[in-house]
Amino acid sequence: MTAPLAPLVSVVTPVYNGGEYLRECIESVRAQTYTNWRYTIVNNCSTDDTLAIALHYAKLDGRIRVLSTEAFLSIIDNHNHALAQIEADSRFCKPLMADDWLYPECLEQLVACALAHPNVGLVCASATSGTKVLFDQLPGGAPVTVLSGREAARRALLEDRYFFGSPTTSLIRADLIRKRSPFYNPDNLQADEEACYDILRECDFGFVHQVLAYVRMHAGSHTAANYYLFSLATCHTYALAKYGRTYLSEAEHSARLRQRLREYYARLALAVVEGRGEEFWAFHRRMLDLIGAPLNRARLARAVARHVLRKLASPAALARSVAGRLASRSRRTAGR
After folding, report:
1. Residue 18 gets which letter from DSSP?
2. Distance, CA of 35 to chain centre
3. Which residues have a Cβ under 8 Å from the Cβ of 209 and sit 6 or more positions away?
4. Exposure string for 264-293, b = 16+ CB within 10 A, e = fewer
5. Residues 283-316: pLDDT tens digits?
């Protein structure tokens, strides 16, 4: 696809102290086979060499610009600030996290899907993090799966599949971003998932069954930091509570929410046994209030009792649990 005929894609990277991986991230954009893009890097008051690296590439390539925030922003606020900078004439937006990088054909394949199916407003793809393929959880043998927004949301809410991926694996129609301010919910650490349910109320969903991005997992990443909080399971439940009635029948919503809350309290029981601190419990009290199901101490006590009884019934499982807790504490200490 030649640049004059191709719609403009606005690539955006919010970054704070991302110097270690930023060069690889930027180079992957410059290597795209799809060439009609402009790239905005938003530096969030970094104290490392992030700004110098970004400015270096801006001098090399006129399609790259660098902006800096006036004051430090929280991670979700910085993402919203970055999305607000997309070009007025862009048709699509490609978020790209500073830890990650894109395969050369990423933009070309995602845009091709969106152009072939004009009602599609959100396109996602597979990714890798080393040897493991991530997010390719939609059955079917075709290279591309296209679902109505309602069907995509129903599958995500009812089935234990997660195919929305991360911001790095998605392409979003720019008009869907412009009409939402902020695009991401600042109260939700996994706001990208919530945003998918929100925009699917008015567009279709496409998935490219091809590894098009590398999503980096490391001790300092947002994903790793939130793993300690069990935020993924929490925010899945929050998304269900917020959007379940939009896409599901009342019976489906009630049954699924009961199941999610059972799973949630099982995770909280593990947190009690592991002795998670006040930051953890403050986060979950707030999220459960947002879900509309405030923390129930009697229910939590029952979940802890069930957890302990299961472990006592299986000495091998108990030993693995202790080893896992020690390893988890070691990783947290190493990441500080």
Report:
1. -
2. 26
3. 125, 126, 136, 138, 140, 142, 143, 144, 145
4. bbeebbbbeeeebeeebeebbeebbebbeb
5. 999 999 999 999 999 999 999 999 999 888 876 6
Q: Domains along the chain? A: 3-223 (3.90.550.10), 228-335 (no CATH)
The letter for the amino acid at 335 is G
Cα–Cα distance for residue pair 273/268, rounded to 1 Å: 9
Tens-place pLDDT, residues 82-123: 999 999 999 999 999 999 999 999 999 999 999 999 999 999
Residue type, 84: A
Q: How far apart are CA 64 and CA 72, in angstroms?
A: 22
CA 1 to chain centre: 29
**Using an 8 Å Cβ cutoff, are 257 and 158 in contact?**
no
Cis peptide before 294 (omega within 30 of 0): no
Q: Tell me the CB-side half-sphere exposure of residue 99, using CA atoms within 13 A.
A: 15
Alpha helices in the chain (DSSP H): 19-30, 50-60, 75-83, 106-116, 149-158, 174-178, 191-199, 222-227, 231-247, 250-274, 278-291, 297-313, 315-335
230: left (phi over 0), alpha (psi -120 to 50) or beta: left
Please state, in angstroms and as integers, the Cα–Cα distance from residue 148 to each residue in 118, 123, 152, 153, following that order.
12, 12, 6, 9
Residue 150, burial from CB neighbour count under 10 angstroms (0-12, 13-18, 19+):
middle
Q: What is the dihedral of CA 117, 212, 153, 296, to 10 degrees?
A: -160
> CA 127 to CA 216: how far, in whole Å?
10
Please report, for residues 48, 217, 219, the alpha-carbon distance to residue 224 in angstroms, rounded to integers and kept in the order given: 20, 7, 6
